[in-house]
Amino acid sequence: TNGVDNGLCFSRRAVVRALVKAVEVTGGLHFGFFWGSLLYQYENKVLAEGSACCLECSELSLELRALLGEGSSGKVYEAEWGDGGSGVAKVGYESKLRNEKQTLERLKGVNGVEQLVHTCKIEPTLLNSRGNRGELVVALLKTPRFIASAESSKVVQSLDYVTNRDARQHAVVSVIETVVNVLCTGTAVSDVQFLIDSATGACLLIDVSESRDVRTILHSQKEDWPALDCAAVLNFLNETSAIIALPSTSLFQPQQNRIVHHALQSAAEARRMELGPDLVNLMLSIFD
Q1: DSSP 3-state of 122
Q2: Among the residues of 42-81, which ranges form H helices?
Q3: Per DSSP, what are the bridge partners of residue 193?
């Protein structure tokens, strides 16, 4: 069909061709267009966005809902999929999600960490001209989608917003236990992100895309740890310590220090055989 505006005649096909050509020439111009209900966006990535957008994801029908977040490796959506499952879907290039997929497979069954339930291919893909043409786009389907327990509570990422003392204590213990359990798999996470329920203190570790396999440090002496693995573990522990830290002026700091020490001793000592004595001692020294 043709459209007329101020005497200019054009076809929809010509407009689409012009838009695609503009994207290819500029190599990453923020230029999207709807095709049906799907928005393709170009900037060295192609990810689906929209309201209740349906995709074929391998053998599953994947429905993407609200956009929850975006990072260097992909976009995260509230999602439902064909077998009745629901949670979140992280969509991006397979090469950028490979490390997160491998990490989540190591963390299968670990309490306090989002779980990978499916990995599927998304087709078709329209890619820009910056060397990614033909690269596979995948979705990591994960559970649960962390939501607040009540209307009066919020999902936060800092204990500064958890004002109830019991909830804060529960959050501190949960974070420490999760970190110990993650290290037992030989995983050190960078850019540590916990979602926390401000009312209950329930926690969930999300986005392990920036993680390192440090299984070499398990059951070994510290002097034998590879330098990069040692640095990754130190960073993981220091970032976690900062998340649960209170200002030095806080009246609750002495009590929280006791809670942290007790929780860490209980969790780490129970897994000493898996972690090794040097790693347990390192954890105790950083959190004390």
Answers
A1: strand
A2: none
A3: 206
